[in-house]
Each structure stands twice: as structure tokens, then as C-alpha cells.
Amino acid sequence: MKETVRILIPEDKVDERIAQLGAQISQDYAGKQVHLVGILKGSIFFICELAKRISVPVTLDFMSVSSYGSGTKSNGIVKMIKDLDEPIEGKDVLIVEDIIDSGRTLSYLLKNLSSRKPASIRLCTMLDKPERREVDVEVDYQGFIIPDEFVVGYGLDYDQRYRNLPYIGVLSLTKE
Ligand code: IMP
Ligand code: MG
Q1: Could you give the 3-state DSSP secondary structure of residue 152?
Q2: Which CATH number fits the domain 11-148, given the four candidates 3.40.50.1400, 1.10.10.10, 3.40.1000.10, 3.40.50.2020?
Q3: How remote is the CA of residue 17 from the centroid of ligand 1, in Å?
Q4: Which residues are known catalytic residues?
Q5: What is the pTM of this model?
Q6: pLDDT tens per residue, range 18-71
């Protein structure tokens, strides 16, 4: 199969939106410290840019879950691959995710992390595909709403590739 990527959101637009989100988060968490929880690996590019734009004190931790196989379809099962390094009890947690698709990953994560008694827990996603939602999730901060297309770049992968594209693109597969 031939893989082609069409630019959906160019790099300058992504960066501009992340700066806005950073400013908003800095305002909302004024006087507090925000504990960013990045979901590996998709959120790493987004969380780095976002963290740099937040002006209140920031701490970082990461966890890894899997909801997809190697292709473009969800199997509906969420598995914990790597847990956080530190407890989150009493912390103002902001989960940072690359994309919400069915909502299964985040609904699992919210339930799991809420049970550890954080002072607060909110959710920030770079992309949201609301048309695909199977489980309701409340999103506090959202970069872009996108149509139901498979996207890569800015952290998002297809078969572990394309994460390093500096923009968000739509991937299409065609017979050669
Ligand atoms: P959900 O549990 O269905 O909401 O899926 C969320 C996870 O699926 C994301 O964190 C991504 O890793 C992956 N995912 C969903 N849609 C896409 C896409 O369009 N491109 C790449 N990965 C995606
Ligand atoms: Mg992910």
C-alpha cells in the first residue's frame, strides 16, 4: 500500500493554538501548581510545547496505555503499560492527550486517576473527533475539533511512524 499524508493543520496553526491553550491554563491555574500527566507516546510533542507555554509552576509525569493495535481501528480494550512514577494525591492534575476518538482511553484514565484522590482532575486534548465518540467524556481544554479521518503527525502515529511530522496530516492508503 502507498501511504500519503495531506496537511490538515499546518505547524504554525498548531503552535498558535497551543500558545492559546497555555495562556488559558495559566489563567485558570493562577496561584496553583499544575501537574501534567502525559499519555505516552502520542502526547509527547504536544505536552512539550504546551508545558513551555504555561506560566504557573509545572510538574510532569507520564503513563502509557494501549487501546489500539498496530492499525487504524480500536479494539476497545484499554491496557495499562506503564503507570505514573509519583502519587497524585492532593495534586491539581491535568491529563494531556493527543486525541480523543471513541473516548474509551480517557474514560478509563479518568476513572483510574480519580480514585487516587487528586485535588482536581481536568483533561486537555490536542484533537477531538466527536463523531466517533462511544463513551461520554468531559473535555476541559481542546486544541481542534477534526472530522472522522485518520490523522498522523505532531505525536500521532500510524504503525509507530509519522509522529515526528511537525504538522497534523490525514493519512491515506492506496493500492500501488
Ligand atoms: P480512544 O480510546 O478511541 O479515544 O482512542 C484514543 C487513542 O487512539 C489516542 O490516544 C490515539 O493514540 C489513538 N488514535 C485515535 N484516533 C487516531 C488517529 O486518527 N490517528 C492516530 N491515532 C489515533
Ligand atoms: Mg494516545
Answers
A1: strand
A2: 3.40.50.2020
A3: 20
A4: 101
A5: 0.94
A6: 999 999 999 999 999 999 999 999 999 999 999 999 999 999 999 999 875 555
